[in-house]
Amino acid sequence: MSRCCMRSPAKKTRNGQNYYELLGVSVDSNSKEIKESYRKLQKKYHPDIAGQKGHEHTLLLNEAYHVLMKDNLRKDYDASIGHVRVGFGGDALDMGHSSWNGPFRPHALFVDEKACIGCRECVHNARNTFIMDEIVGCARVNVQFGDDDTSIEVAVESCPMDCIHWVEKEELAILEYFNIPRPKQGHGVFNQGWERPQNVFMAAKTFQKQQQQAQSESQSQHKTARCDVEQETEAQAKARESASFKLKMERFSGLWEWVNNISQ
After folding, report:
1. Angle at 68 between CA 65 and CA 73, to 5 degrees
2. Within 10 A of 116 (CB to CB), how many other CB atoms are there?
3. What are the structural domains, with CATH classification, of the chain?
4. What digits encode the pLDDT tens for the residues 226-241?
C-alpha cells in the first residue's frame, strides 16, 4: 500500500473564515468575480476609512487574493479545505463526490465501480471510508482517509477484484465523475439499468489530454486576440463573454455522450 505524505491543514483567518468567505465569494467563483470582490473590499477597508483594523483586514484580503488568483496555489488550497476542482473549458466544476478527513494528501482512494462485485469487504474493514451504493450494488469511497491507515490497507488488500486504486489527487475528481452510473437510454420497458464507460481510466486520460490541448489552443488564440480585446467596447466585451459562456455550457452538456463514444 502506498504511503502518502501529509500536508498542513487549510489556513483560516482569526475569525474562522476561509479565503472564500473572507472575500465574500463562492468556491466556484471565477477570477473576474474574485477580483471584483477584492477591489470592493479593499476600498471598504482602506486604512484611511477603517483605520488600523482596516489595515489588518486588508493584509488578510491581500493574502487571500494572492492564493485564489494563482491556479496552482488555489488548487492546493481548495484541496486542503476538501473542495476538489476540475478544470473544464476555462472554468472549474466540482465533479467529485468523496470528501476529505484530516490533512490533505497527494494521493487518494478510488473504486472502479464497474469492476466491483459488491462483496462489502472494504466497507466491513473500513466503514468510515467506504460505503455501499445499494441502488447499483457497488462500493465507493465516501470519505478519503476516514479510517486509520491499517484499516484502509486491510480494506484495499481484501478486495477480491483489485478494484480499489491509489490515484493522484489531480485525477480523483474526474475519475469519480466518469464513475457515476447513468440510466441507460431506451424506450418503454427497456429504459432501465445503468451504464458507465468501459474503461474509466482511459476515459479520464483521454479527457485530460483533450483538455490540455484545448487549453493550449485557447492560450494561443488569447495571445493573438489580446490587442483586439483591449480595444473592444464594453458592449462588445459583454457579448463576447456571453457567447463564450454559452459555448462552455454546450460543451459540458454533451460531456456524457462524449464519454460513451470514446469508451466504446
Report:
1. 120
2. 22
3. 19-80 (1.10.287.110), 94-169 (3.30.70.20), 190-263 (no CATH)
4. 555 455 566 666 666 6
